[in-house]
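Dear support,

I submitted the protein below through the web form. The confirmation email said the job was done, but the results page showed an empty box. After a refresh the structure appeared. I'm attaching both so you can tell me whether what I see now is the final result or a partial one.
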Amino acid sequence: MLSLLACVLTGWWWSGSNSRMDELTYERHGVQTVQLKGSSGKVMLSRTAFNVGESGNLRQVTFNSSPLDPKGASEMANVMAFSFKSEPLARNAGSVSTLILPAWMLTGIFALVPSIWVARKLKPKKKQPKPAA
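What the results page shows now:
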């Protein structure tokens, strides 16, 4: 059920992603920041891990959705649909890892489990042979 819900939500988001930039951020101050950004049919997952700083318990989740300006739209159009990179921050302060996927791929992945379930339900059951008398 969760996979079906994720499939529907991803498809809904994908259909309207050309005109806006959505960003969900989880931040654990001084330790790491995880960002999920999406626009123009592309989804970017980015994790920044810090080597320095305090390991405090302050955590924050934020969401932002804003209209995509012409400059941002052209930048998103030039972003590769499939990419992964990991690079260090300046002065060995940590690292940034980024994964970019097309939204259609996520929708397809989330649709896989419900599709298998439907296929199993629709598959005719084999009849048991009657025992010889």
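Response: this is the final, complete result; the empty box was a page-load delay. The first helix runs from residue 2 to 15.
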